[in-house]
């Protein structure tokens, strides 16, 4: 693993730990002001709107938050990187869930910074489910 | 725009044009054998499984396929890149739809190659829809 891959991995793992501990400052750390998030239902633009999505996430939690990253795969150059993983989440008002996460990063002033997050739950709409799908 | 940004943009735009014209070879072009796709319902691993998802896409089309990329934003280093856009799609059995697309690329033997695609439709599940969402 290159140093850049290690650094990107650390940014993402630290972010997930911040989610688990409800550390709102830690969640926002290493994020660009002008970030773009594809959230489960919405397109979210900018760090303020991103911060707000966590109000809903932490509203009426049902117990300790679990936010476990599986199959974290980092592809990093020396200036741009992206990462993919599967997330198992539990403890929120939505109940246990598994979703997919892609993260896009840029090195800014020497530090890896998240400029994009794409969170999605597998669709349950019949019209999108082909014969090869479960 | 750097030459790498231009080249990545061209790969993605050519792919979208291939989708519109039903050019299955063009759709697969510039994709890594070991690619990872987060499809609407499923996690899809490898180019063969990816190819298969297009069988369902092109099954029982209702007219000409529209596959329009909006707000295509490319972040490219000299070895790794990612891109985000909103896609308007029409003409398939699923009817008109708007979804979000994130693409991850690596330069391989000098050519930009797609190693990751994350396609998602905004969720319609009530449990994920916060008060700030529409």
Describe the biggest sheet of chain A?
6 strands, mixed
Please tell me how large the radius of gyration of chain A is. 15 Å
Can you tell me the overall shape of chain A?
Answer: globular
Strand content of chain A: 35-45%
Give the N-to-C terminal Cα separation of chain A.
34 Å
Mean pLDDT of chain A: 95
Q: What does this entry look like structurally?
A:
The structure is a homodimer of 134-residue chains. Chain A is α+β, with helices and mostly antiparallel strands and 134 residues long. Chain A is 26% helix and 41% strand. In chain A, strands 2-1-6-5-4-3 form a 6-stranded mixed β-sheet. In chain A, a hairpin with a 4-residue loop joins β1 and β2. The longest helix of chain A is centred in the first third of the chain and has 18 residues. Chain A is globular and about 45 Å long. Chain A starts with a helix and ends in a 14-residue tail after the last strand. The mean pLDDT of chain A is 95. The interface between A and B is large, with 48 and 48 residues.
